Amino acid sequence: LALVAGKQVAVEKIADITTEQFKQTYAVNVLALFWITQEALPLLPAGSSIITTSSIQAYQPSPHLLDYASTKAAILNFSRGLAKQVAETGVRVNVVAPGPIWTALQVSGGQPQEKLPQFGQQTPMKRAGQPAELAPVYVYLASQESSYVTAEVHGVCGGEHLG
Question: Which of 59, 68, 138, 140 is catalytic?
Fold first, then answer.
């Protein structure tokens, strides 16, 4: 079970984040993940894997992504706790925490438009990642090659640190 959906809207000041936006961001990023996981768990046999998607934002929140970053921290904490809860059933839970990745989130309001030309250039690799660069991590975590890996966070951040 790979949970990758997300909602991200850049807002410069907390006073400009509406309650509706805050609720919608949590509904998409946290509540949907909770509900899907709750329904899927009884169907997952031993050896299965749940992979959630957090973000470098859980560790290094950007000031214009307060609601988004806080959901990514919640996903991280939820996933680590769930991993310990379900380990005895043989289900593994791990987290992928991307750094700046070119996705539809960025160009549809997830970043201030004036920052798009420089998006990702602050990383040591001096560029944003591509979605295809995340795929191998998800495949590894879904495979039996990671059968002894649970409650871990795997960063794909272009050299930025998660801690």
Answer: 68
